[in-house]
């Protein structure tokens, strides 16, 4: 059962959450010098052991130091990396046999072996790390020989295994287990860059590994990662050439940077789902007509256009558009099903189905979601009802929305990020087992609603899973336990001497500095 993790639950305006200790900005701007400076939008937890780390901003470093068994390409599809190709699948989708690249080796010269891959799959569960839920469907592993590994799941297949779990980041078992604390701060991987220096809460430096086993040869020699939590500060730094690339462009600064000489902008839709959930446990919002009325009372499209059009895109279902591109659910149909802006209809439905003194409590984190809550309150006030907006810190918000009490809230705004599989969104945010964990709407659903979500994750056939999930998505759009709001973009700005930089849909893959489709350089 997935737990709420920092790489999934969206607590702030960034694509994922992390600690917010500001790092020092050293400055690059050397227009082709040896060191490439990347300014992260939030600070790292400084955990660089992939088995332990559950922080997106540490993983931005990790993904350059380590290789995965498979890795996400620019279209959010897994491609073989340390694996020679697709696995052999047996036993009705519950057994996978992987073949490992014999040329692959770690930075210390040790070969990457099947034992290392097996350890990478099983260690998160055995050590009960925050990443355990990503691998706890694995029942056992068997090392066939140095370069072949068998992975057995439980009695049932696990639907997201081929779209997500196979992308395990591979660590050297012997080095890691010899001294885990040392490995966490000075890791050894098999990726194109080696770990060079860590100054905690200041910067991390990595260097090109000239003996990289793969054919890819990075153009960049040295990378420095520094964090800057202040958006205005990041914008100032890129405008002044104090850094080469910044991540996380504020919506209001997009036009400023777009018109700035010597600056280029980069953007990619991310697999995020920002939403407003309704209390379906008790109170007036247990009535779907009240939920529809509130959705009719304001225009989500107008809100996005005025508050976030540069860095956000509208959503029409709980499946992010970038994920929907992989699966092909009928998004246009869902858009037509959602209530359009119609204040007269909103007032009519509330007059019929809500108490005369209905003034719902909306709880929200700060940022753009608080702005959305205020917009809803304003529009509801215009039709004679109003709403009470409570902006809460994240810890208080979690304690509150999981209560299911109408005295605490009728609506809450949050967000979620996952991978390219519907299970990440449907199971975590709508299955009954996740009540009081990842969700606080307590939606009972129709007969078979929760069974279908569970059935979808226990099938290995994508066409079969599509047929299972589509009615579930349709019911969510129609009954509105959660109203889709928008998906966030992963954004970067670079100086114009930075060549071939592309934004990746998955925040942990930014910056992708060397891949089959790009090789960043400074010229």
From TrEMBL:
Signal sequence region: none
Domain Solute-binding protein family: 77-434
Keywords per UniProt: Signal, Transport
InterPro entries recorded: Peptide/Ni-bd, SBP_5, SBP_5_dom
GO CC aspect terms: ATP-binding cassette (ABC) transporter complex; periplasmic space
Family as reported in the entry's similarity comment: Belongs to the bacterial solute-binding protein 5 family.
Protein name in UniProt: ABC transporter substrate-binding protein
Originating organism: Natrinema zhouii
Higher taxonomy: Archaea, Methanobacteriati, Methanobacteriota, Stenosarchaea group, Halobacteria
């Amino acid at each position: 059962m997935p737990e709420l993790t920092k790489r999934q639950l969206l607590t702030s305006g960034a694509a994922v959450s992390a600690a917010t200790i500001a790092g020092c900005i050293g400055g690059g701007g050397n227009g082709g010098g040896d060191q490439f400076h990347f300014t992260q939008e939030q600070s790292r937890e400084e955990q660089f052991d992939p088995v332990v780390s559950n922080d997106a901003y540490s993983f931005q470093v990790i993904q350059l130091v380590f290789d995965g068994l498979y890795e996400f390409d620019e279209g959010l599809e897994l491609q073989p990396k340390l694996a020679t190709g697709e696995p052999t699948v047996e036993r009705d989708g519950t057994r996978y046999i992987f073949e490992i690249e014999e040329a692959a080796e770690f930075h210390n010269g040790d070969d990457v072996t099947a034992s290392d891959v097996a350890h990478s799959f099983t260690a998160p569960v055995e050590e009960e790390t925050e990443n355990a839920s990503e691998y706890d469907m694995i029942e056992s592993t068997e090392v066939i020989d140095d370069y072949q590994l068998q992975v057995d799941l439980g009695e049932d297949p696990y639907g997201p295994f081929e779209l997500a779990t196979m992308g395990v980041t591979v660590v050297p078992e012997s080095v890691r287990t010899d001294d885990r604390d040392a490995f966490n701060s000075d890791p050894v991987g098999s990726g194109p860059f080696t770990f060079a220096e860590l100054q905690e809460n200041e910067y991390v430096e990595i260097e090109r590994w000239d003996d990289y086993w793969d054919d890819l040869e990075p153009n960049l020699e040295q990378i420095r990662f520094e964090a800057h939590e202040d958006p205005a500060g990041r914008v100032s730094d890129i405008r002044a050439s104090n850094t080469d690339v910044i991540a996380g462009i504020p919506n209001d600064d997009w036009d400023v940077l777009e018109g700035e000489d010597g600056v280029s902008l980069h953007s990619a839709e991310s697999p995020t789902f920002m939403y407003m959930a309704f209390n379906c446990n008790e109170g007036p919002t247990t009535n779907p007509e009240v939920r529809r009325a509130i959705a009719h009372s304001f225009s989500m499209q107008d809100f996005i256009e005025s508050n976030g059009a540069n860095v956000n895109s509208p959503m029409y279902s709980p499946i992010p558009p970038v994920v929907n591109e992989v699966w092909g659910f009928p998004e246009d149909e869902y858009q037509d099903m959602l209530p359009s802006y119609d204040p007269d209809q909103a007032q009519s439905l509330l007059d019929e189905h809500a108490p005369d003194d209905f003034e719902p409590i909306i709880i929200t984190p700060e940022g753009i979601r608080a702005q959305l809550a205020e917009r809803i309150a304003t529009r509801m006030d215009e039709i004679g009802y109003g709403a009470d907006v409570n902006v809460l810190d994240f810890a208080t918000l979690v304690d509150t929305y999981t209560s299911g009490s109408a005295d605490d809230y009728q609506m809450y705004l949050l967000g979620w990020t996952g991978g390219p599989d519907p299970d990440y969104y449907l199971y975590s945010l709508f299955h009954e087992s996740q009540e009081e964990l990842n969700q606080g709407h307590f939606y009972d659903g129709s007969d078979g609603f929760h069974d279908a979500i569970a059935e979808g994750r226990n099938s290995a056939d994508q066409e079969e899973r599509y047929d299972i999930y589509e009615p579930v998505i349709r019911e969510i759009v129609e009954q509105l336990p959660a109203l889709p709001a928008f998906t966030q973009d992963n954004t970067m700005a670079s100086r114009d001497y930075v060549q071939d930089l592309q934004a990746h849909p998955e925040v942990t893959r930014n910056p992708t500095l060397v891949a089959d489709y790009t090789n960043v350089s400074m010229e």
